[in-house]
C-alpha cells in the first residue's frame, strides 16, 4: 500500500519520473533466474547452504545483489561469495566494541579462517547490522571451499592483502583514538585497501573465468581507479553520517587549509562558502579516476560483466554531480532519485552510452562550478578531459541509428570527412589499384613470396651442407 501511495504521489508531483519508473518496472527484465532448475549447476540453488548465502547477499546489499545475480554462469555464485567474505571482514573491522587485542589476530588471519570448516564469529556488538553473517559464517566457509581453485586462490589472496591494510588502520584507531587521513596519498591508500583491491580481485576473476581477455588481469591500475571512483563517491556522499559516527575519511590536506580544525565545523560553523570549496576539492579528486574507469569499461567484452561494472560507475557520476556545490550534503545523506537510478540502469548497456552519461554529468558539474572557487580551473580541466575522452573514442559528429552511421551536417568535421571521401573516390577513379583492401583480404601474393624465399633459403642451406660433406675431407 505504501509503495502504491508513493507512486501516486510521484505521478502528481513528478510525472516524467513516474513514466520512467513505470517503464523500468514493465520492460526491464532480469537476465537470469538463479532459482530456475537449469541454473542450479552454476548458481548452487539446489543446496541449502548456497540458498542461505544468496539470502545473506539480499540482506547485506540490495543494490549489488541484483547485478550479481545477473552475471553469467558460475560468476554469479563466485562474486556472491567474494562479496560476503569482504562484508564479513569489513564487519569485524568496523565493530568498535571488539577490543584491539582481539580484533588484530582475527583480521590478520581472516583468509585462513574463511576456509576453516566450522568457523564462525559470535562476539560482534548487538547493534552491528551484519552480525548475523558472522554468526553463520560456517555456511560461507562451506561454500567457499566448493569454489573452483582459480577463483578461490584469487579471493583468498585479495582477502589477505585487504585484511592487513584494515588491521593497520584499526590498530591506529585503537591506539591513537580518532584517526584522520592527513594527505591525499593517505586517502588513496585507504581507498585502495577497501575498494581498489576489490576491483583487482574482480578483474582477476573476470580473466580466470575466460569470459574476458587474459590480459585484463594485468590492467590493475585501471581496476584500482574503478574501485577508487566508487569508494570516493560513497565517502563524499556519506559525509554527515560518517562524521556523526566519528569516521573521518576526508583528507586533512583538502579541508584544513580553509580554517577548519574539525570536520564537523563544516556544518556547525555555518561557513557554507568554504565548506562547498572543500566539497569541490573532494569531487575534483574523485573525478581524476573517471577517464581510467572509462578505459577499463572499454576493455570489457562480456555483456553481464560490463553491466555489473558500468551501472555503479554511472551512478557514481550522477552522485558526484548531485553532491557538487550542494550544501544539503552537509546536513543529511543525499541520494539520486529512484527514477534517475532506473534510467541509468536502462542506459548503461554499452561503452558509448556510459561515456555519454559521464559527459552529461561532467557538464552538470562544470555548469555548477563557480569562478571564485579555488578549484574552478582544475574542475574545468577535469570535465574537459572527460569530454575529450568521449570525442576521441566516440566522435559526436557521427550519429548512430538503425540504418547505420550518419554525419551531423552542422559539424565542420563532417565537411572534412566528406572532402576526404571525395579525394579517395577521385584516386580510385584515376587508378583502380588505389582501391582500399577489403577487410577479409589475405595477401596471397605476399605470402607466396615469403614461402618461396623460405624454401630457397632452406635449399641453399642444404646445398652448402652437402658440398661441405662431399668435398671437404674429414679430420
From TrEMBL:
Stored PROSITE patterns: SQUALEN_PHYTOEN_SYN_1, SQUALEN_PHYTOEN_SYN_2
Enzyme class (EC, first level): transferase
Any Pfam family hit: SQS_PSY
EC number(s) given by UniProt: 2.5.1.21
Keyword field: Membrane, Transferase, Transmembrane, Transmembrane helix
GO biological process: ergosterol biosynthetic process; farnesyl diphosphate metabolic process
Transmembrane residue ranges: 305-325, 446-469
Record bears the keyword Oxidoreductase: no
Cofactors demanded by this protein: Mg(2+)
Keyword Cell cycle: no
Pathway per the UniProt entry: Terpene metabolism; lanosterol biosynthesis; lanosterol from farnesyl diphosphate: step 1/3
Family the UniProt entry places it in: Belongs to the phytoene/squalene synthase family.
Family matches, as PANTHER family: FARNESYL-DIPHOSPHATE FARNESYLTRANSFERASE, SQUALENE SYNTHASE
Name the UniProt record assigns to this protein: Squalene synthase
Species of origin: Suillus discolor
